[in-house]
Specification:
The structure is a homodimer.
Chain A: E1 5-6, E2 11-19, H1 21-24, E3 34-35, H2 47-65, E4 75-80, H3 86-91, E5 99-101, H4 108-123, E6 127-133, H5 135-142, E7 158-159, E8 162-169, E9 178-184, E10 189-190, H6 199-218, E11 227-230, H7 234-247, E12 256-258, H8 259-262, E13 275-276, H9 278-294, E14 300-308, H10 312-316, E15 322-332
Parallel strand pairs in A: 2-3, 4-5, 4-6, 7-13, 11-12, 11-14
Antiparallel strand pairs in A: 1-9, 2-8, 2-9, 6-8, 9-15, 10-15, 14-15
Helix pairs in contact in A: 6-7
Chain lengths: ~325, ~325
C-alpha cells in the first residue's frame, strides 16, 4: 500500500493568521489578519500567555470568517513548541469544542491539516487546525531569553511570532474552495545534526524523503505544480534540500519555495538564515499561499511542513536532531 | 451532529507493555510483556533514554505479536510527557514508518487509539498507537528529581514506569479480534485546580463531561457495560468523578474502574492516591483489559483516558490545570 492518503472531502473554508510586529513589517505583511503593533505581548504579562492569546485570536478569527459558532465546530487539532503544548492547551481551553493535541514541532501546521483532512473525509465533521510560535517564549525555552541579547550564528533562524488557524470542512460546506486532495505523513529521519542553531540542516533530509516518496508514488514531476513549499528550512536548509533532491535525481529548484525565506526580508530585517517555528509555515500558508489559491493565481501546491523532534535536554545528553516533513496537497477547486 | 464517531474498521490486533519493577511487582504484574528487574534503566545512561528504549521495545513487541515487518506498518501515532515528546521522537526514530506525534498528557494512550481507529477505518492502513511515562524522567521534569527524596502529599500519584503499544488494523487483517466500535474526543475543561500534587481532581471533571456526553448520546446506561475504565484519576480523582456523575444524575459507581487504582497494591506499595502518567492507562489497557476482552471475560468496555494539560511553568505563572478525557469503546467481536 502506498503512503499517499487521498482525502475525498476536505476543504479549507477559512484560515487566519495572527503575527508580531516583525512579521507584519515583512514582505507578506499585507496578508495577515491580526497583529500587535505595540510590543508583541497581545496584552498579556508573560510570553507564554501572549502566545496562548494569539491562538485564541486566530481560531476566533477563522471561525468568524467561516461564520461558525462553537456548536458548529466539531473538533480542534492543535499543538505548539512550548513544553507540554500549553500555548494550545490554555489558548483554546475556553472553546467548548472537542480538542486533540498534536506535536510535530514546526511541522505542526501540516500535521494538523493532514489529520483534519482525514477526519473531515471520514467523519464529515468540521475541524480546526491551530498552531503557534512566539519568538520570546521559544527562544527562552530552547536557547536563551531574548533579553540576554545573545549573539546569533549565521545559520540560525528567527522563531516567528505567529499563530494560524484553518477551518477544514467536508464537501458541500459553506466557504472558500481550497481543496486538500491528498496528504502524506513524514518519516522521522536522523541525519546526525547536533547544532541547535542549524535546524534547517536537520530538517532538510526529512523534507527530501517526503517529497521524493510523493513524487515517485504520484508519478508527477515538480514542474507540474505551481510550487513545492517547505515549512521552515530557511536559506541553509533550502540549499541542502535542493542538493539532496538533485542527488536523488529530482530537480525541484524552479518550483521550490520556503516559508522561512518568504516571511521576512532576510537581508533588510537581518534574519540570518530566515524564519522558523510552528507559526512560520502556519501564517505563511494560512494567509499568503491560501490567498494565491483563492484568487486563482495558483492552482496546485504541495506543502511540506518540516519539524525537528528534539528538546534542549536531549542535545545536552548527546543526541542528534531527527527531522520530519508532513505533506499536504492543496488545489483550487 | 453528535460527538460519537463510529469506526467501522478498527481492530486491536496486538498490544504490548513494558514496565518497571514496581509495576511488575503490582497486582497486574503477570499481564505485562517486558520489564527491567534490575534498576528500571533498560540499560541506558539517562532516564530519558530509558523511556525512549521502553517505547522502542513496546512497539517492537507488538509488531512481533502481530507478525508485522516495518513495511507492513503504515503509520505510528505516539506521544509522551517529556518536553517536546522526545521519548517518542527518539524511541521510534529507527522505525522506517510514517510518524505522527500527538500530545494528550496522560490521555495519550486513548488519543492514539482514537486517531488510529479513524485512520484505520478511513485509509485501511495499519496503525500503531504508542505511549510511555517513566517515574524518574517525569518526576524530575514536573516536580523534583527522585534522588532528592522529596516527601509526597497524600493526594499525589506515582508516575508509572511503563510503555504501551497497540496495533490497530482494518477489518479482515490477521490477529486478535478486539474491535473499537466508536470513539469520542474529550473537551478541555478547567475546574480551577492549581495543586500539582492533585492531578486526579483536575482530570475528574473532564472525565465526567466525556462520560456524560457519551451515555447521553448513545442512550446507554452504565450498567450495560462490563466496565467504564478511567485513565489515571487515582483514589482522589475517582471519588470526585463518582460524586460529579451522581450530581449529573448518572450512577456509574458499580461499573467504574480506574487504571491508577488497579495498577498498584496502593496500600502495600505505599502509593498514596495511586498511579498516573501516560504509561498508567497505557499498560493497564494494553495488557490487562485487552486480555479480558480477548479471553471473553469481558465483552464491552468504555475506556476514558484522562490527561492534565499543564506544564511546570504554567503553574508558576498562576494558571490552573485544565483536564481532558478521550473515550474509546472496545468490544469483543
Amino acid at each position: 500500500m502506498g503512503d499517499i492518503i487521498k482525502t475525498d472531502s476536505a476543504y479549507i473554508t477559512a484560515s487566519s493568521s495572527v503575527v508580531g510586529s516583525l512579521e507584519k513589517a515583512g514582505p507578506l505583511g499585507e496578508y495577515f489578519d491580526i497583529w500587535d503593533e505595540k510590543d508583541d505581548t497581545f496584552g498579556k504579562d508573560s510570553w507564554e500567555k501572549s502566545e496562548s492569546e494569539m491562538q485564541r485570536l486566530a481560531l476566533k478569527c477563522s471561525m468568524e470568517k467561516a461564520v461558525l459558532s462553537e456548536g458548529e465546530l466539531d473538533v480542534i487539532f492543535a499543538g505548539d513548541l512550548i513544553n507540554q503544548c500549553i500555548s494550545s492547551g490554555y489558548g483554546l481551553v475556553d472553546f467548548d469544542v472537542p480538542f486533540l493535541g498534536i506535536y510535530g514541532a514546526c511541522s505542526t501546521c501540516a500535521e494538523g491539516l493532514l489529520l483534519s483532512s482525514v477526519f473531515s473525509s471520514y467523519t464529515k465533521k468540521r475541524c480546526a487546525a491551530v498552531t503557534s510560535s512566539h519568538n520570546c517564549s521559544a527562544e527562552r525555552q530552547f536557547r536563551f531569553p531574548v533579553e540576554y541579547g545573545s549573539q546569533r550564528t549565521p545559520t540560525s533562524q528567527w522563531t516567528v511570532t505567529g499563530a494560524a488557524s484553518f477551518i477544514v470542512s467536508p464537501k458541500n460546506d459553506r466557504g472558500e474552495r481550497v481543496k486538500i486532495v491528498d496528504v502524506m505523513a513524514g518519516k522521522s529521519i536522523d541525519a546526525g545534526i547536533t547544532d541547535v542553531n542549524n535546524m534547517g540542516a536537520a530538517m532538510a533530509p526529512a523534507a527530501a524523503d517526503t517529497i521524493q516518496r510523493y513524487l515517485t508514488e504520484s508519478k508527477r514531476d515538480a514542474e507540474s505544480f505551481d510550487c513545492i513549499v517547505t515549512g521552515d528550512l530557511g536559506l541553509e536548509g533550502s540549499s541542502i534540500l535542493l542538493e539532496i533532491m538533485k542527488k536523488k535525481g529530482f530537480d525541484i529548484s524552479s518550483k521550490h519555495r520556503d516559508c522561512g525565506v518568504e516571511i521576512y526580508d532576510i537581508e533588510k530585517q537581518d534574519m540570518h538564515a530566515g524564519g522558523s517555528g510552528c507559526g512560520c509555515s502556519g501564517v505563511t500558508v494560512a494567509s499568503y499561499f491560501t490567498d494565491k489559491l483563492k484568487k486563482g493565481e495558483m492552482s496546485d501546491i504541495l506543502f511540506v511542513g518540516t519539524g525537528a523532534l528534539m528538546n534542549a535536554m536531549s542535545l545536552q545528553q548527546g543526541n542528534s536532531i531527527p527531522g520530519i516533513g508532513h505533506l499536504v496537497h492543496m488545489v483550487r477547486e
